[in-house]
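Researcher: Please predict.
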Amino acid sequence: MYADIAKMIDHSLLNPALTTSDLDAGCRLARRYDVASVCIIPYALARCAELLHGSTVVASTTIGFPHGGHTSAVKVAEARQALADGGRELDMVVNVSQVLSENWQFVRDDIAAVVNVAHAGQAKVKVIFENCYLRDEHKIRLCEICGELRADWVKTSTGYGSGGATIEDLKLMRKHAPAFVQVKAAGGVRDLDKLLEVRALGVTRCGASRTKEMLDDCRRRLKLPPVEE
């Protein structure tokens, strides 16, 4: 069904060069195609929530983006602001430096700080690993920590690192994250066939900027009428 595919997509509006008009148009596109969420530049989140009001599309934004090196206090402040602005899902970047240093207590506390604030505000958290910088043992430990903290998703990448989602990483994350933790792919899923491929691995969300192209293709294959502009 079309809805099953559309509700996998977090429409990404994170390019720093997007203008106010671009951001508004992206929110309206996401609403027309009835995707899962719009993940937008933090300053535009309140406007995004306003444009999505009354729809089934969720307003979301990023925390500690794109490098994860913010202090935990700053990440918490970002999370609180996002909740105040109407954000219902938060995509948080881990502190990559501390993951590579294997300072797991710091990493755990950093993730927990955001998860606790978000869950207290009835919002969900996607924890971004930025796998291109990590070894498999780091990814596995992060999956375990996210399970212990009841994070809602583990996510491959920001889309702004040196690499995005890979089939190998998605398989690894689905294997080592508890069943109640979902998996999100980001970076490199650019057409419907790739979206269907990662879906078959157990991926439930995918960050995408080519939403229109993918969902137009989906509707054509299902012999559905095009979405009205």
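Model: The two ends are 21 Å apart (CA to CA).
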